[in-house]
């Protein structure tokens, strides 16, 4: 659960490294919210389809999804840059997403690859940092 919201805490932090779990849990959170809001919008559209009195709030869930995507864009790019740093690549590789048709596919492959073991030019291995930090439950009970 902490991985899902960690990129929001590191909103504009483009330095350092992020683990694969941090990226994928955050992406799962983003997709869940967007798909949920879109499903509500489609459901409302289907419910009011063909009626003479559609509600003016019909497109509100879709507008909320678009606003959410705009608000989450910076932390999403930041966590992608940190993932690239984990592979010891420049953050500018995030621009691969702009290549039509295949850019997102190349980016997904980069996000799936494991990070470099040990420290690299962008900092310590995030997996090793996690091993040295006590869990929140351990802090509560100790």
Distance between the termini: 21 Å
Radius of gyration: 19 Å
Question: Mind summarizing the main beta sheet?
Answer: none
Q: Report strand %.
A: under 5%
Overall strand count: 0
Number of spatially distinct domains = 1
- Uncertain runs: none
Task: Write up this protein.
There is one protein chain. This protein is mainly alpha-helical and 142 residues long. The chain has one domain. 61% of the residues lie in helices and 0% in strands. The chain is built from six helices and no strands. Helix 1 crosses helix 2. It is elongated. The model has no long low-confidence stretch (mean pLDDT 85).
Topology:
Blueprint: H1 2-9, H2 20-48, H3 60-86, H4 103-112, H5 126-132, H6 136-141
Helix pairs in contact: 1-2, 2-3
In a nutshell, what does this entry contain?
The protein is mostly helical. It contains six helices and no strands.
Entry keywords:
142 residues, mainly alpha, 61% helix
């Amino acid at each position: 659960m902490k991985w899902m919201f960690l990129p929001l805490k590191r909103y504009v932090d483009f330095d350092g490294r992020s683990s694969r779990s941090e990226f994928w849990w955050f992406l799962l959170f983003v997709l869940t919210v967007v798909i949920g809001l879109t499903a509500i919008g489609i459901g409302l559209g289907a419910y009011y389809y063909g009626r003479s009195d559609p509600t003016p709030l019909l497109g509100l869930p879709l507008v909320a999804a678009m606003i959410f995507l705009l608000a989450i864009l910076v932390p999403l790019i930041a966590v992608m840059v940190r993932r690239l740093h984990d592979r010891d690549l420049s953050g500018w590789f995030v621009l691969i997403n702009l290549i039509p048709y295949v850019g997102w596919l190349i980016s997904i492959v980069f996000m799936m690859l494991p990070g470099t073991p040990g420290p690299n030019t962008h900092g310590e291995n995030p997996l090793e940092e996690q091993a040295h930090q006590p869990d929140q439950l351990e802090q509560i009970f100790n």
